[in-house]
Specification:
Elements (H helix, E strand, L loop, with lengths): L8 H10 L3 H16 L4 H12 L35 E5 L5 E3 L1 H5 L4 E9 L3 E11 H8 L7 E6 L4 E5 H5 L4 E6 L2 E2 L9 E3 L12 E7 L21
Parallel strand pairs: 1-10
Antiparallel strand pairs: 1-2, 3-4, 4-7, 5-6, 5-10, 7-8, 7-9
The protein binds the ligand Nc1nc2c(c(=O)[nH]1)N[C@H]1C(S)=C(S)[C@@H](COP(=O)(O)O)O[C@H]1N2 and molybdenum atom.
Molybdenum atom (MO) binds next to loops.
Length: 235
């Protein structure tokens, strides 16, 4: 497991409240709401947030707005070196066609480049161009069940997260293999990481090795989520 998280929930909320950007405030209004109604009502929050988010694609940025220096490395358990030749992405759980996809299989799917803002709760953000395939395309390749309301994401550094179905299927949610016009660097999650403009940085797992579709959230919701970080973490 990663080392002990350094940010308390209170510090996160404090950051959000003092954050000047409307982007941060947007996410934090939801965080405040969630914290005031408490964990017992998670399903209610989830429905509400999914509803608020059901607005379709969010505005992106131009390629010339990319700021490579602004993207800080945030890795809590070292940098795993995955051999691209033997790399496999496992897709299982509530799917009709479980997959074990190599990089060639991912490269054969339609490729997209999206320029988006990456927002870390530690108080920094960066505009990044991510390239790769839609997570939705991978999940439909596997035949995601209508009962699969959640997607659990495992990583090679033992990082873990879980997502709601709508966010996983969102057209701007990518499994990225490229960053700023080059192959994804090891430190940023090579060979495959999650990228999306609709969730906070800690939901964007690097070194992804497994996607498991589930009908409910398990005991483990995520490396940071289990330490009190907002589960939905919508932007
Ligand atoms: N597997 C894994 N994914 C991870 C992390 C991590 O430690 N391990 N850190 C998260 C956090 S908090 C952030 S802000 C982003 C940082 O991505 P970057 O290092 O490419 O900037 O990765 C996220 N994904
Ligand atoms: Mo982060």
């Amino acid at each position: 497991m990663p080392s002990t998280p350094v940010l308390s929930r209170r510090k996160l909320l404090g950051l959000g409240i003092s954050g000047g950007s409307s982007l941060l405030l947007g996410g934090c209004a939801l965080n405040d709401l969630s914290s005031s109604v408490g964990d017992a009502t998670q399903p209610l929050n989830e429905r509400l947030e999914a509803l608020l988010q059901g607005r379709g694609p969010v505005p992106l940025f131009r390629p010339d707005q990319v700021d490579p220096a602004a993207l800080l490395i945030n890795s809590f358990n070292g940098v795993p070196r995955l051999d691209p030749n033997s790399y496999r992405l496992r897709v299982d759980g509530l799917v009709s066609r479980p997959q074990s996809l190599g990089l060639a299989a991912l490269a054969a799917l339609p490729q997209h480049t999206l320029v988006m803002r990456h927002v870390c709760v530690e108080g920094w953000s960066a505009i990044v161009a991510w390239s790769g395939v839609r997570l939705a395309d991978v999940l439909s390749l596997a035949g995601i069940s209508p009962l699969g309301g959640y997607v659990e994401i495992s990583s090679a550094d033992q990082y873990f997260s879980s997502w709601d179905r709508a966010s996983a299927l969102h057209p701007q949610t990518l499994l990225a293999t490229g960053m700023n016009g080059a192959p994804l660097p090891a430190a940023n999650g090579a060979p495959v990481r999650i990228a999306t403009p609709i969730k906070l940085g800690y939901k964007l797992s690097k070194w992804v090795t497994g996607l498991r579709v589930a009908s409910s959230l398990g005991e483990r919701r995520g490396t940071w989520e289990d330490q009190g970080y907002e589960w939905f973490a919508g932007l």
